[in-house]
Amino acid sequence: TMPKEPAVLRQNILDTTAAILACGIDPKKCFLFRQSLVPEHAELAWILGCLTNVPRLLRLPQWKMKRASQNSEGTVGLLTYPVLQAADILLYKSTRVPVGEDQVLHLELAQDIAHHFNKKYGEFFPVPKAILSEL
């Protein structure tokens, strides 16, 4: 949600990819792709954002904490980032999502959005369940 220098961003993408491969992820057994090249993430985030009310997003503790650290300023990107996370999950019709304790509320938002979408338009998205990790 913070602007990055294009050259730094490109290098970060390469470094992250190298780290993932170094951890033993086998690209022959899983899909490895750059999310920013898949326009459906942003497109679904827009649709879901149109179904999500602002007061719900303002209650998220991550928004409150990050906004406080930015001198009471907060960007729209920061506010709507949890909707993008929900789109990332729901786009692939994920049923189980590994999360840490700090992301449980964001997954609950994805669950609420899935319920709301399904109620309005018919059963389409599975409601994802959390797999809580120890770390």
Automatic annotation (TrEMBL):
<dbReference type="InterPro" id="IPR050203">
    <property type="entry name" value="Trp-tRNA_synthetase"/>
</dbReference>
<dbReference type="InterPro" id="IPR014729">
    <property type="entry name" value="Rossmann-like_a/b/a_fold"/>
</dbReference>
<protein>
    <recommendedName>
        <fullName>tryptophan--tRNA ligase</fullName>
        <ecNumber>6.1.1.2</ecNumber>
    </recommendedName>
</protein>
<dbReference type="GO" id="GO:0005759">
    <property type="term" value="C:mitochondrial matrix"/>
</dbReference>
<comment type="similarity">
    <text>Belongs to the class-I aminoacyl-tRNA synthetase family.</text>
</comment>
<dbReference type="GO" id="GO:0005524">
    <property type="term" value="F:ATP binding"/>
</dbReference>
<keyword id="KW-0030">Aminoacyl-tRNA synthetase</keyword>
<keyword id="KW-0648">Protein biosynthesis</keyword>
<keyword id="KW-0436">Ligase</keyword>
<dbReference type="Pfam" id="PF00579">
    <property type="entry name" value="tRNA-synt_1b"/>
</dbReference>
<dbReference type="GO" id="GO:0070183">
    <property type="term" value="P:mitochondrial tryptophanyl-tRNA aminoacylation"/>
</dbReference>
<dbReference type="InterPro" id="IPR002306">
    <property type="entry name" value="Trp-tRNA-ligase"/>
</dbReference>
<dbReference type="GO" id="GO:0004830">
    <property type="term" value="F:tryptophan-tRNA ligase activity"/>
</dbReference>
<keyword id="KW-0067">ATP-binding</keyword>
<dbReference type="InterPro" id="IPR002305">
    <property type="entry name" value="aa-tRNA-synth_Ic"/>
</dbReference>
<keyword id="KW-0547">Nucleotide-binding</keyword>
